Amino acid sequence: MRFGSVLALVCAAWLGVGCVSMTVVSGNQVPTERIAEIQPGHTTKAEVLDWFGAPKDYTDPSGLRRVLDGGALLPEDVLALPYADVLVFETTHGRVKGLLLILFNWLDIHVTADRLVVFFDDQDRVLYYGYRKGSDELD
Amino acid sequence: MSWTRRFACVALLALTSGCTIGRSYLGSPLLADPREVLVVGHTAKGEVLARLGPPDRILRQKSGDIFVYNHDQRNSSELEIQEPVITRMTIFQWEKVQEKSDRLMVFFDGSGVVSAFGYRQGRNELEPL
Q1: pLDDT tens for residues A58-80?
Q2: Is the pTM for the entire model greater than 0.90?
Q3: How many other CB atoms are found less than 10 A from the CB of residue A21?
Q4: Domain coverage including residue A49
Q5: Is residue A3 part of a domain?
Q6: What's the number of domains chain B is made of?
Q7: Count of domains observed in chain A
């Protein structure tokens, strides 16, 4: 009888334990191998568009991104208005980890972005740029 | 108390109450201390991008751009006790939510040089629970 009760308790505890691990990636990958080739004063907008494709501001956001936007889990767009002299390339990464027990739940959510921002002069040549691989912080 | 009763007590407790602790982070920490990088009237936009990375938001004005850097953190703790069988009514609920940001705003003049900046490390104000 005692062994049976202990076994029932262990089974109940086992059924009540859950674990959550989720990774979300939204947006096209920014090809990092091309970033080193960007040279302010030389690289043209046409080359940047050829290397990195259509910038984020002109791509249709995925359904997932719209859902995350609605839940206020994602930041606002980087650029308030799409100007021709700034292009933004971005991939958003999200990671969720959780432990669901009977009496205690723990959740840890990280949302970050790999982002490339390129400014151009009036000759459509790169003026300056900035890049950050935020997804490295999730590892 | 018999094992059966103890088990019943534990099962009842499990069904009625729960504690949830959540942490969410949005954005990335700054790559460098802006007070060491930014010099009003000297630091150019290119150097800001190189040292601090791309901003989270760019605001455009006639007098020059504004870069906004954000690293948000949300801490939440919740304890809830419910009647588990008939009404599922919440008997007691306690919740504490804190949202703080490390925020940097950099103003540039028309020639792309830092004209002013503001920096606040709000995440330091977060309490442990």
Answers
A1: 444 344 455 555 555 566 666 65
A2: no
A3: 9
A4: 20-138
A5: no
A6: 1
A7: 1
